[in-house]
Amino acid sequence: MKIAFYAPLKSPNHPVPSGDRLMARLLIEALERSGHTVTVASELRSFSSDPAGEARADIDRDADAEVARLSTLWELEGAPDAWFCYHPYYKAPDLIGPHLARRFGVAYLTAEASYSRRRNQGVWAQNQERLIESVRSAAVNICFTRRDRDGLLEGASEGRYVLLRPFIDPAPFLAQQPRPQPGRLVTVAMMRAGDKMESYRMLAAALACLPHAPWTLSIVGDGPLREEVASLFASLPPGRITWHGQRSTQEVAEILRQAWAYAWPGTGEAYGLAYLEAQAAGLPVAAQAVAGVPEVVRHGVTGLLTPAGDVGAYAAALERLLTEADERDRMAEAARRFVTEDCSLERAAQRLDDLLHRHLGGRA
Q1: The domain that contains 358 carries what CATH number?
Q2: Are residues 178 and 257 in contact, defined by beta-carbon separation less than 8 angstroms?
């Protein structure tokens, strides 16, 4: 099939790395592995934190221009078989695809669309309506978490929904055998305001509860709040923290395989691809049982999940992984197996191909 791919929040070609950019790229690779031809249809970023302001008006004008540009292109070269929209939500709606799909009779589908009634107020109401209209009209909506699916069902019960487990390309993390160093924890995360900062804050507080435990922590990541993050760990015993900064995938894989466990609370995480990367490298995970994290970490099997906001419980989970070596080893083996069997790029490619033929089969 010929697929026009669009990510209104962040293009797969965006220069700044993030989980959104990575997932967009993985979806494209999975589709291409199944023999489909994928083209990034537009670079327009519809994201706005001020939907009533001048920026919103500019985005609407740019979206109209993109609809006109693509209409002309498709009239000349032919329309694709499907428009694939990744991660539309109330701050980044798809302002292009629904118009083109109706005009050209192109199948429309979404992946990781999200909806919550509590956003159905004030200046966001129009974007919420746009989102629900798109979801209702979609041939299929691919949901990475039950939480997202349940939210969409609440807004559009008549929509068509399927679950696809979040996935990664595990190859760089499976390439070498783990060489875990006892006591070494690791986290990989950007340093920015909001949920990331809250997770760093919780991690520092939990480690402060464990001065007696034989831990060290490797932190991989960078960002605008690097100094603020560093200050959170300043009162911890000296020599325990190693700051790696931003690293390549291969370098991250090498750091992970030498660690004992992966420590990241995951406040507000949609699901967290970094958890899958850590598990592929053979690490059990300590995280909170929040949002979509239970979709990618199996409590008691591949890691330990603790109640949201409970620093004491999170510290206890870290100590358990640090001190219960046999349990840690069992979880490490299960974690690698889980990603390989359930969350791999190859498995996702097969699943996506099946979904396309089942829901769009007449167009292939």
Answers
A1: 3.40.50.2000
A2: yes
> Which tokens sit at 150?
């349940």
Per the CB < 8 A criterion, the answer to whether 246 and 168 are in contact is no
Query: Which residue type is seen at 127?
Result: N
Residue 274: which residues within 8 A CB-CB, separation 6 or more?
A: 19, 188, 189, 262, 264
Structure tokens at 325: 């070596």
Dist CA 193 CA 94 (whole Å): 26
Q: Dig out the tokens for 270 from the structure.
A: 């949609």
β-pair partners for 40:
5
Structural element, H or E, at residue 332 = helix 325-342
pLDDT in tens, 131-186: 999 999 999 999 999 999 999 999 999 999 999 999 999 999 999 899 999 999 99
Does 218 share its domain with 263? yes
Q: From CA 160, how far away is CA 321, in angstroms rounded?
A: 41
List the helix and strand counts (H, then E) for the chain. 13, 12
